[in-house]
What does this fold into?
Amino acid sequence: MDPAGHLQDEQNEQDDYVLDEQVGFLLRQAQQRHAGLFSDCFGGDMTPTQWAVLAKLAEIGECSQNLLGRYTAMDVATIKGVVQRLLVRHLVLRRRDPDDGRQLLISLSQEGRAAFDRHLPDARKASTATLSALSEPDRALFLRCLKALR
Amino acid sequence: MDPAGHLQDEQNEQDDYVLDEQVGFLLRQAQQRHAGLFSDCFGGDMTPTQWAVLAKLAEIGECSQNLLGRYTAMDVATIKGVVQRLLVRHLVLRRRDPDDGRQLLISLSQEGRAAFDRHLPDARKASTATLSALSEPDRALFLRCLKALR
DNA sequence: GACTTATCATTCGCATACGAACGATCTTCG
DNA sequence: CGAAGATCGTTCGTATGCGAATGATAAGTC
It folds into this structure.
């Protein structure tokens, strides 16, 4: 009786784990795909994280490095490296907060503002290209879902 | 009434670029969230990529390192490192392909198989936890969308 | 004012990720 | 057979990403 083993608790669960159906695995691949498209649209000139910093600075203006990291979803160690690389390229400015000796204030340089303006169309292209496989209503729902599991 | 406020630049319809609405930015955060949940579920014992290799090997059996990388969506340089770390932990075996001197054949060790069996419930928990913010129908649609933009 | 706690930045170590260059090996074709 | 091209694995360099430890500074408490 019951040779296929429908013992609802154990082996049934064992067999239906398919890697290609798992959120994490799909999320990783989706991000890889987006990173590739992003690089194409930007001509390899900038990474998504670097762009995120520029875009956030353009949005809110000067900001402490720590807060900037929180706004752009980056660890303190990560934001440090990203800012460092943007500094080398003279796209951002860094100064000590005169009112709080702990903080570093980061802002867009003129070059950084120009880079933001110049690449804004590329950023839109990257977003559009990434979602191109989805229908218009699916895109909206997909973005809502993504935000929900943030 | 100029509800958008004062116009400091020639902004307007160009400047509706909001970082927090972009797919790439949301994808990155979703993956960060999942990585954290995954680590929690696994007790920090394994990374998502390492688990992907184990799960794929459990699914298809012995496999060349190169093909394994393609199945798990990893660059040749990446899969090399992941396999190396799994080798150190004795979770996988590696041997030269007797029929093709270029290839390395990777397979699960007994320990690796045991680790897979032991962690399978954790993997399910991680997937479920990641999607916990979505309704049941939304989960299915979300996964379909993720697969579509792979 | 002195002590405790909190916050910020830096650093280290480890683990993905990918492009590019390289050598070794297999396959194909002339 | 032998040269050309394809495939596989390795290595290097660069860029996220995170946990943990450390030192500097600020804020809160007594």
